[in-house]
Amino acid sequence: MLTLIEGKGLELQKPDSSIRKLKIGDFFEFSGEEDIFASPVQGPIRDLNFIYKKDFLKPSYSWEPSIPNLKSRQFSSENHHLIYLISGKLNHTTGTVAEAGDTICISPTTDSKYLNWKSEAASFIRISF
After folding, report:
1. Which of 108, 101, 94, 107 is nearest to 122 (CA)?
2. Measuring CA to CA, which of 2, 15, 85, 120 is 20 to 30 A from 98?
3. Type and span of the H or E element at 10
4. What is the per-residue pLDDT across 79-123, written as a single tens digit (0 to 9) for each?
5. Nearest CA among 87, 93, 85, 82 for reference residue 1
6. In which element (H, E) is residue 97 found?
C-alpha cells in the first residue's frame, strides 16, 4: 500500500501502461512483484508504504484528519492498529508522547489503558488489521 502524505501529487504507471494519479490522502494497493514506476507531479513528495502478505493480512486504511477541539482518540480493542502521525501530537496518561513522523502499534493484547489518547491537533493514517 502506498499513500501520499505531502506534495503536489504522484503519477504511478502500472505494467499495462495505465497511469494512476495519487493525491494526498489517496491509497494505492499493488503487488510487490509488479513494476510500478512513480513520478512526482511537481516538486518533492513524502509518502508512506505499508508492505504486507496479502494471504496473511486484510488491512483497512483510513486517513484521520485533525479535528479542532477533539480532545481524545479511542481505538478499538478488537483490531491491531498502526498509527502513523502526520502532524500534531497524541499524548497518553502514561507519559508517552507521539509526534509527527512517529508510529504507534496498538494490539488487542495491549492493556486497555493504551486505547485512549489525548489529541493535540493530531492528523494520522490508521492501518487496522
Report:
1. 101
2. 2
3. strand 10-13
4. 888 889 998 888 877 778 889 999 988 877 765 555 677 777 888
5. 82
6. strand 97-99
For residue range 28-73, list pLDDT tens digits in order. Answer: 988 888 899 999 999 999 999 998 888 888 888 888 887 766 667 7
Residue corresponding to grid cell 501530537: 89
Query: Please, is 125 exposed, middle or buried when counting C-beta atoms within 10 Å of its C-beta (0-12, 13-18, 19+)?
Result: buried
- Nearest alpha-carbon partner for 61 in 1, 123, 8, 122: 1
Ordered DSSP codes for 19-74: EEEE-TT-EE---TTS--EEEESSS--EEEE----TTT---EEEEE---TT--EEE
Phi, psi of 32 (to 5 degrees): -65, -20
Question: Measured between alpha carbons, how far is 1 from 29 in angstroms, rounded to an integer?
Answer: 4
Cell 496518561 sits on residue: 93
Confirm if 7 and 40 have CB atoms less than 8 A apart. yes
